[in-house]
Fold these 2 entries.
Entry 1:
Amino acid sequence: MTLIPLVGSGAYQLATQWQMEKTQANQAPAVGASTAQLFLSLEQERRLTAEAQADPGTASRDKLTKQRAMTDQAVSAFRPLAAWDTTAWDTTDAQPRLANAIAGTERTLGLLAQQRRAVDAGSSNKQRAFDYYSGIIGSIFGVFTAVSHSYNADVSAKTQTLVDLFGAVDMIGREDAILARGRKTGHLTSDEYGLLVDAIGTGKYLLQSRVAPSLTGNEIDPYRTMTTSKAWETKTALEKRLVTADSAAPLPQVGAEWRSSGDAVTSQLLRLVGLRSKNADRIAFSSVDQLFAVLISVSAVGLLAVGLVIVTSWRLTAILRRRILDLREDAQKLQERLPDVVARLERGEDVDVDAEVRLVEPTPDELGELGHALNLASRSAVFTAVRQAEQHRGFERLLQRIARRTQILIGLQLKKLDELERKHEDPEVLEGLFDLDHLTARLRRYEENLVILGGGQPQRRWRKPVRLLDVLRAAQGEVQDYRRISIEVEDEPWVTERAVGPLVHILAELMENAAAFSKPPTPVEVRAAMVSRGLAVEIEDRGLGMEPEQYAAANALMQSPPQLDVMTHADDVRLGLYVVARLSASLGLQVELRPSAFGGTRVIVLLPEPLVVDRPRAVPGPAALPEEIPRDPAGPQPHPLDGTDGPRPPHEDGQLPTRSRGRAMADVTAPAGSPDRSDAAASSDPQPLPQRVRQASLVTELRAPADSGEQTGQETWAVRDLPSRSGATIGAFQRQSRRTRPADDAFQPPANGSPEPGSPTTEDRG
């Protein structure tokens, strides 16, 4: 990458220089020829203009007219140069630049016609005409100077001598014009004489000091021939006479001799100019060819060097890249092996650290040292993963062991509470026992959370399908603020036995969250209905809800629950969601959280069709519920029964009776074999239940005044269509059902006193 710009920059500079020199070599002959022709034409017109002003005869006028026509042709040939692309001479040392010089000459030539008319009309004197033509010739020398500057030093030296030769020719032309002005009068003014002497001295300086030392090769002999010729000697002698003559004395008669010698010397100088031009063009084109050869050579060598560097770099890079990719592949394999090692450790397999680490063969360079470091890192990573996985697995076993032991104590506590609830009938005592029963059910769920987070599964098992309404009531019984939860179930769906325990736990966690994150006394609505893909349960609260990002994160958690590290998530408030996600994944449930129309959160739990069963053919009444769902609807008991604990048969439609606080059911308080109960049971049509007025059986002296807020005896018991029931009524109904159940159907503990597996007091309670 570094060599390519260097080679490209060098080649670009050579190509630019080659292009410039080629342009100069091609344009210089055309520019020089047109400019030289204009120069010679103006030299002749300046001399003839001076002769016509000195002797306005017919002959001189005719010569001037012919010369003007020739000058016009030269001007026409020069004007196209102004449209040329002269950027090849646009360099810092070309002063004046060619474009500016051509433009200056063009502007001066624009006044040529005006000057001619002034000369013809006699309004322009000799000196003004002389100055004008000399000015035009001076601007032409600017073009010569600009063309003489080249990128090639040899070409510049050759062309600079050409400028000096044209300068010598111009000095002879100046002498002609000045002498023509005094040829008729025979004398010159002091100013004219000074101009003549200056022209003679300048011409001599240019030829002897600048032209002669720079001549080489075939240019020396023509110059020597010119300086030794008779015309040169005559011109030199005449110039000496003119210089030594007094300005006030009459002008020496040098007309014919000067004309012949001056024309001969000028012709020899122009021949030397042509020879010098050819030599300069030959050097310029030779330089262009050499520069092109250098450009090709440098470009070829540069490209070869770049190709060699690219191939070498590619080879080295390929070798290094292959070795680096090997190291990267080893690192990726290590990354893939670590989760596999951890998974094997979680399954209880033994892992050999040395067998799991693939050592990289070391080499005596930096990559070898990197491979050795990778070996150490791989071994350390696998060893650390093994240690951490073993510690995590041990912690999970310890957590499950502690939770299981606690669950045993909770089961014993629930059993003891059952015994106490059967023995006591005092409403106040029962209310306290029911509160303890509710707290114990919640504690059992929390312990199951620890078991699930520790990698285990809940121990509660059911042997038969359970009605969804009972499942929802069981989940409601494990929620602290259960009074705010309303349940509504369409039809009468049943849940398969293997999904009862996990589903109760999932619904209890979601109900708990809904009640905890919504402000009392707003309700938490639970609705269940069959849908096209199974059974849908909706739990909707009226809390503050969550942000869209939180909903997305929660739904992602439900779709793919991670392997939770309890130690690193001890402070995470979403442990309940982890439990729901784990249990849902084990059953194949779909749980989705959405914003509620009330501003809270709506959770949709979809049970697939395999977990939903039809109603069994022989379904026991609600009295058989404890055999399938242990105590779950009896958990929340805010209001115990008032004074009675007799058997209470269900109605024929399967609905349980409900009552208001402070009102007892006569049918419930009746003995098991009472005529009223048997008649009611035998009757084909359900009869309204009798009413009982509180304290009606007491004498007047023993009656306590009724509370102002208590309702009168107008309240009656009725069978409600809604699925919500009083927990106290259900608990009392269960107890009396157990008492009146036949001996072969009632639950009998084994003789050793340990609970039967799968019974409500052991497995069903966790």
Entry 2:
Amino acid sequence: MQLKLEPHCLDDPTTESFVIPGAKVFDRYFDCPLDYSNTNSLETIKVFVRHLVPINKVKDIKTLPFLLYLQGGPGFEVASPSTALSGWIKVAFEQGFQVLLLDQRGTGLSTPVSATSLEKFPTDDDKVNYLTHFRADSIVRDCETIRLALTKDRVSTESQRISLLGQSFGGFCITTYLSLFPQSIHKAYITGGVPPLVDNPDTVYRSLYPRILKKNKLYYKKFPQDVVKVRRIHEFLWQNNVTLPNGGKLSPRRFLQLGILFGGSGGYDTLHETVTFCINDLDNINKLSYRTLNHIQQLQSWDTNVIYCILHEAIYCQNQQSSRWSAERVMKEEQFASDFEWRLDRLQPDQAVNFTGETIYPFMLDDFSELRPLATVAHKLAEYKWKDLYHIPTLNTLDSDDGKMELAGVSYFDDMYVDRDHSEYTASQINGFQQYITNQYAHNGLHVDSENVLNYLIKLGRGDVAYDR
């Protein structure tokens, strides 16, 4: 198949550009195959990359090495930076890189996936078939297509290699990249996203629910008065049909999904503030105000980023296995059912109502307005048998001992999103990978202290520091 790539990509005069403090920014679009396994298909999608070059090195654009950033998710775009004078981009520039910010296929300015965009397909089966091409294996092949286009004029194989930085799900993508195209990678840094090498999510959630319960206990220890307040809000939502500004439903279970905030720095305080808003409304007007409902709606991303729901559990599936609504099934197992009881008629009189976390459930297809049209599609995807994402023999034998590849990652001790034990095992399977484990940050360490995190990983990957567990 002949790929349609931008001619003379780096100096194409039609490419839009602008300047932010510290960098010149180029907006680049690439035509990539929808289905890389079907060489006869001519169907393509657009993939967008925001390309940042140090403002004083624009003349060196054809020779500077690339650092490609892979965003967390699945299903989230990269925010447009306002400056390159701080954060991890500053560190990347100091290390001699130019930076690529990828909107992964289906997100942001790349060909989007939404309830509206999928209306072009006549049947739900057609939608399912389309969506099977939006996992890490396809994202990585987009990255490889882009790498080839941007480095095609470079004379040496070494100068054509790319470096990677991946946050959360971005680390899952990096591990797939190392499996499929190890020869294309020079350096790779993973923050909070060394993936579990599992075939389906069941074991992931059996590890996750105890961590969510621990976070609930810490929350109620910090805000003990919220035990009664959350029960009151839960009872109100159980007895009343509450509609959100965009037409979604604020059911008791949807409200409890705000526990996803526990995974990031400041999450306890944000949830407590939300509980306070709700109680203030109930005390004063005996219902939830528009302001409070809009606040809750904005804290939940599944309407604006539908991939985050409908392909979430699929990121753990390989070896021809399906997810089958894993989080829902596992939550109902005997060891978790009583702790995560949400039905009002089954709660004990003084029982704290526990929040859930980054977990996906079938009820969401009714409660979230943008997910309702995709309900049948989501159920079909939950039964879909997925192909492999990782090749362990390749990971075992990565060429890192002679200094050709630098690999490092940070895992967070009490990460509520990515299980540390699973991450440690995976790290042990990646030859040459240097893993840093810390309790200094929550899952979003790269966002709250990005300069220190990336600087340390670079030193760890080079061998400039030795991390001893």
